[in-house]
Design goal:
alpha+beta; five-stranded antiparallel β-sheet; about 190 residues; 9 strands; elongated; single chain
Amino acid sequence: MKKKTFLIFSILATIFLSSCKSTPDLTEDEVYTIINEIIVDDSLPIYQACWKFRNIKLTENYKKEFTEEDLEFIDEQNEIFKDLKIQPNKLKWYQKRQKAFEFTSVDTICDQGILYHISFPVISADRKKVLIEFQEDCNCMLGGQGGKDLYEKKNGHWIRTKSFDQWISQNKKPQIKTNGQIPRNF
């Protein structure tokens, strides 16, 4: 009788456990924790950010970095967090001169001064890999810089292991010619 009861219990436990999600959903606090850890581990001076997370379209090149389980998890998280905005007092960066953490200022207009645009992080199911984009924008003629980076958590720290689509914009002063001459003091 004990064997039969144990067998029934084992079958029911297996059915119950297999019907549960093996990977819990990502929480908003986890998202901010991961971004903050990356900012600190990579010494990024994210002192001002645009309020809107950008989205990374997963190309085949990016998908190669993740498992099938990860890709399913990523699709679910993108749906859950599709309307998430960057909240004040959630992102922090390390101010080396002050030797202290400071909150990132969140800009709701995003068209003046130097600021960062941040993508919603593409996070693996085991929370050990993250693809994220940081773009620095000066909102001026000088342009900015940015790109997507793959980070992996190793020994408790986020290490940048790969970069994709890196770019730097440079201001090249236009040369205006008048009658075949380049004017002085331009």
